[in-house]
Amino acid sequence: MIHARDLVRTFKTKAGPVEAVRGLSLDVAEGELVAFLGPNGAGKSTSVRMLTTLLPPTSGSANVGGIDVIVDPAAVRRQIGYVGQGSGAGQYYKVRDELLTQGRAQRMDAATARRRAGELIEMLELKGLEERIGSTLSGGQKRRLDVALGLMHEPRILFLDEPSTGLDPHSRANLWEHILKLRKQTGMTIFLTTHYLDEADTMAERVMIMDNGRLIADDTPERLKADLAGDRIMVRLTSTAEAQQAAGMAANLPGARETEVSGHAVTVTVGEGEAILPEFIRRLHEVGAQVATASVKRPTLDDVFLGLTGRSLRETAVA
Amino acid sequence: MTFVADVWTSFAREMKPLVSGWVWLAFGLVQPLLYIGLFVPLLGGIGIDGPSPLQWFIPGMIVMLTLFGTAMVGWSLTEELLSGVLERFLATPMSRPALLIGRALKELFPLVFQAVVMIIIAIPFGLQLFPLEMLYGLVLLGLFGVGVAALSYALAVAAKDDTSMFYMVSQSVALPLMLLGGVLLPMEMAPGWLYTASRFNPLTYVVEAERALFVGEFFTPAALNGTLVVVAVLIVGLAVGSRVIKRASL
Hints:
The complex is a heterodimer. Chain A has helices at residues 44-51, 73-79, 95-105, 110-123, 139-151, 169-186, 197-203, 221-229, 240-250, 273-286, 301-309, 313-318; strands spanning 2-13, 16-28, 33-37, 59-64, 67-68, 80-83, 157-161, 189-194, 206-211, 214-219, 231-237, 259-262, 265-270, 291-297.
């Protein structure tokens, strides 16, 4: 559904050329829900803008919905819905009018556009707001309208650029509820960018991590976490000597990676912590070591990012 | 055909909020009214010929209103450019030049409305009507406004997020054009160099054409030259605007 090969985008700035995207290749199949995760400035938006024909690539190629974005951008635009980072609805325009205008812009006939606008108003909880103008809507309402605008022509592929940025947690959850419901109903391919870790983790079936213009990881959130970060088992014993002994045993656990001793505690990173912890405790018990406490910490996508780049996504996102 | 439909789509969208904009339109008339009340009486004393100084002054005034009104319309586009509204349309199959032309066409309405109100208000003060010639004058004015508006939109797209740049350029072009166009006082009174400079100002010809039309002179070189200038501004404006928006990647 979406294919990119070696996409590059260089911007000219006063300080010299900046390579926003450096050789992006990706494939998204029909019906997938993919999240592009990365810090601000990683090149996520630039990539999406190239895939949606808003920005010509400096080099490389992309094919969206079976159409080359450089050869026939207008045909690509008919296939896709695009919800940009900004607000798509005009300040001085009424909700329903904007939906109908969008329908016309997407070459829908008047009757179909009216019916579809009605459906979307219902579906995205915009009822009662039809005659309100853009500037009077709340952040969450505006964003739902943006999504409705992107969906007017029933696109096969929906691009969402930072759909929930700036929304309060309640509105975010609400927006996601709608997006997931829509997807269930239509089987649409959804490609979104986000810098919210939890959002990528819980919503997307597949996460592509982008940093510094490059794709550095691409898999399901579960596998990314298992392969690139792993679970951290922490066991606290009753003496330093026991801890040293336990550390030696921990290194021999199946799939054990880093082992660390700190006072009475031992930490070890393994693939599947929940399965391994009982075994570890049993072995410790056999050698007579007293286990005081035990825990498994599941990794987050931030741990994945940290493992890949040496930086935390949280810090980068704030900076 | 789709091109025309796209122009219409863009035009129709822009027309909708105009209704709430009437307040601003009315406010825009305050300044010219002050000119009529407080400035025009002075003109009688300095030898403006014709049946009434208004016959000379009103056409200049509506050209000025048109110029300032339309030179600044890019501002509204800047707002939509920053918020993401323009991007939303750029991601649809709509023709990009149609997007811009539809917007520019909408500018016809406020400026023709303002001009008509000015004329009506000036009638009790002694403005004499030449309906056909004045109507042609309004058509010229409208086309001129559409051309300037297209240039203003092009500037807004080119300046992108740099709103101060848009403001500086549009103001530093519009004000000298206005002063050199002999809108307030006859350029015949100007020193030689200033008069010469004014002959290189396209706006001068538009003002002169409107003045000829407002005293009922249709088949004159002034009306012809003005028409040619307006057509040139329109073509250049639409061509530049189309080119800029086609290449726009915000």
